[in-house]
Structures are given as structure tokens and as C-alpha cells.
Amino acid sequence: MRFIILLLGGFLLFSCDKVKDVFQEKDLLQRPVAKRCSECHQNIYNQWKDSRHAVAWTSEEFKRASENYSKTKCLSCHAPYEITVSDKPNLRDFHREDGVNCVACHFRDSTKSMHGPYDVFSPPHPSTQDLQYTKAEICSGCHQETYKQWKTVATEKNCQQCHMPSEKGKLIQKFPFDLFHASKEVHHHGFMVPKSKKDFFDVKISKDSSGVVLKITNLKVPHNVPTADHGNPKYYVDIVIYKDGKEVYTDSYMITPKEAFLPKQEKVINIPYLESYDKVKVSLSRKLSWQKEAEKIASYDF
Ligand code: HEC
Ligand code: HEC
Ligand code: HEC
Ligand code: HEC
Ligand code: HEC
């Protein structure tokens, strides 16, 4: 019963010309902090608040690396006003602690509305459907290096498909408005970094006069691993060589973004071990810029 009344009320309101004025919440068009959007977009907000984008300004690493925010050329991607395609954005001069927040990515001065992937009816704020949001280009103004690397690979997948996976759900959770809006694909706003799986890399081992030769190819990630615009992520390749059941040689190689695993390209590591062996174990692990410790990715036995 309550539902029917709401539905009727809803139809009356929909037909009313003044619906926009009645429901519009003007402060939403004045670039508020992300928390403000959580009143309706609660699920998306909860994901974002735990994301690296939310701490892009306040992170200790950034504070240190930007010399306590004194290196001005570093600041704008970490507290942007409005994102742009391929160029770095301008710096905000308010709410900087909010990092890469909702309005920086969604609100446009040009239309005074929220741009997004859908054609929606959103009385609290105007919205504009903008298909750029479904393309890799929307990330390119800040993730410039990664975008350039991705561009060189023939792949169907864009950044969102791997870093903002979607599932069916509501864009908003606020009662009773949520009842009037159909479910859609909602993209995860945690901007997580999936872990590579064992078969993402092809690992081969051989022997020549200089010792053991290790060849590793990044088969599945369509950008460098590790990739970075300014952080300092690392990969580690650990090697253990066995003879007669005993460890006879161990070594560890650190892979920085400068000597990364390029998509579909073989990387050769020469191990100066000339004796014979029975078994070799190669392990890969990674440490994202902000992680304190490395985590295991996979190991390969030969
Ligand atoms: C063009 C946009 C842009 C500019 C300018 C920029 N950054 Fe970044 N920064 C990024 C992006 C994107 C990342 C995400 C990390 C990645 O690509 O792996 C990042 C990540 C980082 C990280 C790692 C995050 C963390 O919390 O550990 C640090 C530290 C950092 N940047 C410092 C800087 C410094 C210092 C400067 C100035 C020399 C700078 N950034 C300028 C875009 C930018
Ligand atoms: C009072 C409720 C309310 C608040 C607060 C609110 N929104 Fe919305 N928003 C909506 C509704 C309703 C829709 C349409 C939902 C649907 O059709 O499924 C929507 C849709 C959107 C869309 C999708 C647009 C598109 O074309 O794909 C974006 C982006 C968006 N909102 C951003 C924001 C941001 C950013 C904030 C905070 C500044 C915010 N919203 C605050 C109610 C709200
Ligand atoms: C306004 C600039 C900006 C835009 C636009 C942007 N990012 Fe970021 N992104 C950053 C910064 C800065 C960081 C690093 C924050 C930190 O760790 O301190 C980051 C971090 C990330 C991370 C986490 C990296 C890690 O090491 O954990 C992912 C994943 C990511 N972004 C994906 C995306 C995707 C996908 C898009 C496009 C939909 C996008 N970003 C758009 C600036 C941006
Ligand atoms: C096919 C899926 C896929 C696509 C498409 C993709 N990525 Fe990634 N990305 C990954 C995986 C997997 C990792 C983690 C690799 C690892 O650490 O093992 C990663 C890592 C990252 C990282 C973390 C930085 C680091 O330490 O290496 C950032 C930032 C990132 N991607 C941004 C992007 C952007 C921007 C795009 C689009 C231009 C994009 N990715 C496209 C799968 C993808
Ligand atoms: C780094 C940029 C970025 C940030 C920050 C960001 N979004 Fe998004 N958002 C996107 C992109 C890109 C899409 C579209 C993904 C697609 O369709 O492939 C999207 C989609 C949406 C949609 C449509 C539903 C969906 O998930 O496709 C809503 C609503 C939305 N965002 C609200 C928000 C709110 C609220 C916040 C803050 C809590 C926020 N966004 C933060 C980039 C961002």
C-alpha cells in the first residue's frame, strides 16, 4: 500500500514542471566534498572512501614526496578541480584533503551538471550523459604514462573493465527515491588493483655459457607492470637453485617502473650460476607504491 501511494505521488511529481526546482539541491552544483554525495550514492561513496583516490592528497607518501606540498607542479592531479582528457587538470583551492573526489571527476562547469555514463532522471541535480566516461580516455589526463602504454597494445579492454568492474545495482540508496530508479550496471569505485594470476606471465628457463637465463613475458596486463606515473611500485623476482636437494644459489631482482615487464615483450634476466642443477624455483611478488610489504603473486618450478 505504502508503495502504491509513493508510486502515485511519484507520477504526480514527475508530471509537474516545477519538479526540478522542488527537488534540486543547489549546493550539489557548488563542488561539495564527497561525503555530501553519500546521502544518496551511499554504496559508491563507501567504495570510494577506501580508495587511493580518496587519500591522493593526504597520503604520507605524497606529503613527503611533494615536500610538504611545496612542489607546486605535483599538486594538481592529487587535488584536481575538473578532470580533462590527456592534459593534467587544474589544482583546486578548496577541500584539497578530499583528494580525487566525486565532483572533480563528474561535475562540469560547461553544463553545470553531473556527467556520467547514463541518461538518467535525477531531480536533485542535473545530469548529462557523456560516453567519454565509458572509455580509457577519461583516466588519461592523470594516468598519462599508463594510458600511453595501454594505447600501444591492441586490446578490447579499457581501464574501467579491470579497475572499476561492474555489477547490477542501484545508483542511489536513499528511500524513497531508490524505488523510482531501475537497476543499472554500477561500477566499483574502489579503484582497486587486481593481483596478477600465475598465467598472466610466461616464465621460461634455459642455460647458456653465461649461466642460467630467465625469460619472463607479461602476457595479460595491457600496460607495463609495474606501471606508475609518479609512485614507486615494485616487482620482485626471487630465484632459488637446488642441487642434490639443497639450496645452492639464491638471488633477488627488483623490477622498478623504469625496467618494467612491457606488455607482450620478453624480459631477459641473466643469472651468473654456471654449475649444474636439479631444480629452479622462480617467485614473483609485488609492492604497490603505498604498500608497506610485498605480496606474493605466483611461483614457477623448473
Ligand atoms: C599528471 C598527473 C600527476 C602529477 C602532475 C603528479 N602525480 Fe603523483 N600520481 C599520479 C597518478 C596517476 C598516480 C597513481 C600511481 C601510478 O600510476 O602507479 C600517482 C601516484 C603518486 C604517488 C604514490 C601514491 C602513494 O600515496 O604512495 C606519489 C608518492 C606521488 N604520486 C607523488 C607525486 C610527486 C612528488 C609529484 C610531483 C613531482 C607528482 N606525484 C605529480 C598522477 C600525478
Ligand atoms: C538527494 C539525492 C542525490 C544526491 C545528494 C546526489 N545525487 Fe547524484 N543522482 C541522484 C539520482 C536520483 C540519480 C539518478 C539515478 C538513476 O537514475 O538510477 C543520480 C545520478 C548521478 C550520476 C549519474 C549521471 C549519468 O548521467 O550517468 C552521477 C555521476 C551523480 N549522480 C553524481 C553525483 C555527485 C558527484 C554527487 C555529490 C556532489 C551527487 N550525485 C549527489 C541523486 C542524488
Ligand atoms: C585527477 C587525476 C586522476 C584521474 C582522472 C584518475 N586517477 Fe587514478 N589515481 C590518481 C592518483 C593521484 C592516484 C594515486 C593516489 C595515491 O595512492 O595517493 C591514483 C590511483 C589510482 C589507482 C590505484 C593505484 C595503486 O597503486 O593502488 C587506480 C587503480 C586508479 N587510480 C585507476 C584509475 C582509473 C581506472 C581512472 C579512470 C576511470 C582513474 N584512475 C582516473 C589520479 C587520477
Ligand atoms: C586487462 C585488465 C587491465 C586493463 C585493461 C588495465 N589494467 Fe591496470 N592493472 C591490471 C592489473 C592486473 C594490475 C596489477 C598488476 C600486478 O601488480 O600484478 C594493474 C595495475 C595498475 C595500476 C597500479 C600501478 C602499479 O603498481 O603497477 C594502475 C595505476 C593501473 N593499473 C591503471 C590502469 C589504467 C589507467 C588503465 C587504462 C589506461 C589500465 N590500468 C588498464 C589490469 C588492467
Ligand atoms: C577518478 C574519477 C572518478 C571518481 C573520483 C568518481 N567517479 Fe563516479 N564514475 C567514474 C567513471 C569513469 C564512471 C563510468 C564507468 C563506466 O561506465 O565505465 C563513473 C560512474 C558513476 C556513476 C554511474 C553509475 C556507475 O557506477 O556507472 C555514478 C552515480 C557515480 N559515478 C557517482 C560517483 C560518486 C558519488 C563519487 C564519489 C563518492 C564518484 N562517482 C567518484 C569516475 C569517477
TrEMBL record:
SUPFAM superfamilies: Multiheme cytochromes (SSF48695). Keywords: Lipoprotein. The keyword Lipoprotein applies. The keyword Lipoprotein applies. This is Putative lipoprotein. Residues 37-106 form the Cytochrome c-552/4 domain. InterPro entries: Cyt_c-552/4, Multihaem_cyt_sf.
